[in-house]
Amino acid sequence: MSHYKVLLAKHNHLETDRLILRPVTLKDTEDMYEYASDEETTYYVFDRHQSLDDTERSIVQYFIEDPLGKYGIELKETGKMIGTIDLRIRREDRRAIMGYTLNKAFHGKGYMTEAGKAILKLGFDVLERDCIAALHDERNVASGKVMERLGMQKEGTLRHVEKWKKGEYFNDVYYSILKEEYDAMKLN
């Protein structure tokens, strides 16, 4: 077993001022369905869930079968899960890729930036990655703003990545932050 998997297992709960990042369970079905059934929230990320059964299957297939590096974003104040964030480790190099989804009712409050900072800390300080990247559909400008607030730099756009909903092509905008850039931000 890879060393990073042990570290991810040891750090399956992360805490920030307002959030707890923790494993997603079937108890989160209703909270996840609240945003996973919303076309506006899911459009750029995954197919909209049509039922609670869809959400349960998604939780089992993505979060429970292989939970390492995948977190529900829970509000400390209420215990409500408002989104998810993950860090996918690339074994062949010292890189990782971050992905996230947030219930639109909680946009504009800094929650995703707060969760992203916790994931960067995990990736750089614990897992000793050299680079953490993220990407977003170019039409999802708000996601790019989160990446910029995390100190990530735009590297470029991958055009016509694949066909998506309604047969339309989409372009992915790729961002990343290097370990030395992250360290410099911590000093400021």
Describe the structure.
The chain has 188 residues and is an alpha+beta fold. The protein has a single domain, classed as Aminopeptidase (3-Layer(aba) Sandwich). Helix content is 36%, strand content 30%. It is built from 7 helices and 8 strands, in the order αββαααβββαβαββα. An 8-stranded mixed sheet has the order 1-2-3-4-5-6-8-7, sandwiched between helices. β7 (153-163) and β8 (169-178) form a beta hairpin. α2 (29-36) packs across α4. The mean pLDDT is 90.
Element-by-element helix/strand order? HEEHHHEEEHEHEEH
Cα(first) to Cα(last) distance is 37 Å
Spatial ordering of strands, largest sheet: 1-2-3-4-5-6-8-7
Helix content: 25-40%
CATH level-1 class: Alpha Beta
Task: Spell out the CATH superfamily.
Answer: Gcn5-related N-acetyltransferase (GNAT)
Are there runs of 5+ residues with pLDDT below 50, and where?
A: none
Average residue pLDDT: 90
How many domains?
Answer: 1
Q: Report strand %.
A: 25-35%
Structural class: alpha+beta
Q: How many strands in all?
A: 8
Radius of gyration: 16 Å
CATH topology: Aminopeptidase
Largest sheet: 8 strands, mixed
